Amino acid sequence: MKPIVDARPYPYAFDPAHTAVVLIDMQRDFLEPGGFGAMLGNDVTTLQRIVPACQALLALARAHEMRVIHTQEAHDAQLLDCPPSKRARGGLSCGIGDVGPLGRVLVAGEPGAGFVAELQPLPGETVLRKPGKGAFHATGLDAMLRASGITHLLIGGVTTEVCVQTTMREANDRGYECLLVEDCAASYFPHFHAAVVEMVVAQGGIVGWAAPLAAVQDALRGAMQEARPAAA
Ligand code: C5J
């Protein structure tokens, strides 16, 4: 029996063999003091709070042999994949490509572009570098997922209303069945997070489903119990 998550707007069924956990941009540049997010004036502790839940989501994915994809918003050292408009936005004194406390901001290979210590990818997991907010823009993600037979995505990460929402909308338009794992995603602005959850599930799940991690854990536990042969 497939796990069925008690989700909004209605139950979400998925087969772990055809499901990927996509963790969006859990990078030092967004979560740590001195990073891009902090230099934009944000309180990074609002994002740090979801790290334990993200660890639990990764543990669940690994235990059930689901595909794991860690996305990373980062540019090449020459910024050839960074549109000038993105670099200029905000008129920051220390913006994308500039040297900040965590190295060059949002540049691949720099300390700030790396994942936070608690959420390091394991060998065999996919690290997907992306130049945009959405994980499908200018990456091979769609081809990679289709080649692996992935049809369902469990999505978490930061920030809910920017890279998480953009990725979920891109995935939805490409036909993937997406569940936003609510407590594994966060915004610097909690009311934006709450609004995105509502937007996703509105109108019959116009972008997909939403549920807390515990509901995903319960669904997997329930399916495993069903699969176990009854004691003689
Ligand atoms: C932002 C992201 N907020 N990962 N990036 O610039 O959401």
TrEMBL record:
Residues 19-207 form the Isochorismatase-like domain. Keywords: Hydrolase. One of its GO terms (molecular function) is hydrolase activity. It comes from the Bacteria. CDD domains: cysteine_hydrolases (cd00431). This is Isochorismatase hydrolase.
